[in-house]
């Protein structure tokens, strides 16, 4: 099993989760983070660190966000690894808890 970054991370990109990951399986895009499913060891350390509740265990991923499982795997192959915390995006607070942000994902 793996953990999955979902919709609520888009346009927020808090990186609190990155610092606690013991295997450095987070990858960073312009306005979204993803978890590499083949590198994730299912330790669950990242999930409670996300201030916007955007990280899910694979088996708890909401039905309407199932596409994020494949999206995390795809983008992790193309984006650079991130291992240190950074500031969230400048307008992150405005985007927190806005639904259906998929269209705003920048590759």
UniProtKB/TrEMBL annotation:
<keyword id="KW-0004">4Fe-4S</keyword>
<dbReference type="GO" id="GO:0051538">
    <property type="term" value="F:3 iron, 4 sulfur cluster binding"/>
</dbReference>
<protein>
    <recommendedName>
        <fullName>Ferredoxin</fullName>
    </recommendedName>
</protein>
<keyword id="KW-0411">Iron-sulfur</keyword>
<keyword id="KW-0479">Metal-binding</keyword>
<dbReference type="InterPro" id="IPR022569">
    <property type="entry name" value="Fd_C"/>
</dbReference>
<dbReference type="GO" id="GO:0009055">
    <property type="term" value="F:electron transfer activity"/>
</dbReference>
<dbReference type="InterPro" id="IPR054829">
    <property type="entry name" value="FdxA"/>
</dbReference>
<keyword id="KW-0249">Electron transport</keyword>
<feature type="compositionally biased region" description="Basic and acidic residues">
    <location>
        <begin position="83"/>
        <end position="107"/>
    </location>
</feature>
<keyword id="KW-0003">3Fe-4S</keyword>
<feature type="region of interest" description="Disordered">
    <location>
        <begin position="81"/>
        <end position="107"/>
    </location>
</feature>
<feature type="domain" description="4Fe-4S ferredoxin-type">
    <location>
        <begin position="1"/>
        <end position="30"/>
    </location>
</feature>
<dbReference type="Pfam" id="PF11953">
    <property type="entry name" value="DUF3470"/>
</dbReference>
<keyword id="KW-0813">Transport</keyword>
<dbReference type="InterPro" id="IPR017896">
    <property type="entry name" value="4Fe4S_Fe-S-bd"/>
</dbReference>
<dbReference type="InterPro" id="IPR017900">
    <property type="entry name" value="4Fe4S_Fe_S_CS"/>
</dbReference>
<dbReference type="GO" id="GO:0046872">
    <property type="term" value="F:metal ion binding"/>
</dbReference>
<comment type="function">
    <text>Ferredoxins are iron-sulfur proteins that transfer electrons in a wide variety of metabolic reactions.</text>
</comment>
<feature type="domain" description="4Fe-4S ferredoxin-type">
    <location>
        <begin position="31"/>
        <end position="60"/>
    </location>
</feature>
<keyword id="KW-0677">Repeat</keyword>
<dbReference type="Pfam" id="PF00037">
    <property type="entry name" value="Fer4"/>
</dbReference>
<keyword id="KW-0408">Iron</keyword>
<dbReference type="GO" id="GO:0051539">
    <property type="term" value="F:4 iron, 4 sulfur cluster binding"/>
</dbReference>
<dbReference type="InterPro" id="IPR000813">
    <property type="entry name" value="7Fe_ferredoxin"/>
</dbReference>
<dbReference type="InterPro" id="IPR050294">
    <property type="entry name" value="RnfB_subfamily"/>
</dbReference>
